[in-house]
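Case study.
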Amino acid sequence: KNEVEQSPQNLTAQEGEFITINCSYSVGISALHWLQQHPGGGIVSLFMLSSGKKKHGRLIATINIQEKHSSLHITASHPRDSAVYICAVRLDSWGKLQFGAGTQVVVTP
Amino acid sequence: DTEVTQTPKHLVMGMTNKKSLKCEQHMGHRAMYWYKQKAKKPPELMFVYSYEKLSINESVPSRFSPECPNSSLLNLHLHALQPEDSALYLCASSHSRPGRGFYGYTFGSGTRLTVV
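After joint prediction, the assembly is written out as follows.
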């Protein structure tokens, strides 16, 4: 069983819609990352969270340490937001990450 | 410079070839990582170098040989690979801070490897 669970696996939205991706984890962590990967491409780190909430442009990430849960929100979604979004938790001081399976997001015009 | 640069971007090699993947960063990060990613799967950790020393080897076959010649450079030497080793190979680096270990992550754009 993966210690990091993401939902949904796939998501299709129309341009302008509000999108939420959820991540639950079952282990103690020191930080949680939200990552973005476009088809065939490398990974971009969107956020690193250890508590609370962060915002960057149209992206908002929240984490609840007690409930072991994080969410990534995309406001006013755009076709260029189409990508795989991956939740990853940092387990130890080496920076080793445990990844969720990813959420494929497609935003249609 | 806030990037991790990987070369080459694409590589096709035969099963008897020897090749190397290169990863470079100039952010002063003291931890560097190699990940392997198969299609539609999350990345899998292969190796961790901290302060130029191999810290973690996730039971990777010996046909993959990492090398960290200095704090900015990480290589992955490939020899006698199998077709199932075809994947996207990602390099990453992270900060270090006393008492906090390594944190933050910057990924490279990857090398798409095809073994024929």
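Observations recorded in class. The two ends of chain A are 37 Å apart (CA to CA). Chain A touches chain B at residues 30-31, 33, 35, 40-45, 48, 86, 88, 90, 92-97, 99-102 (CB under 8 Å). We will return to this complex in the next lecture.
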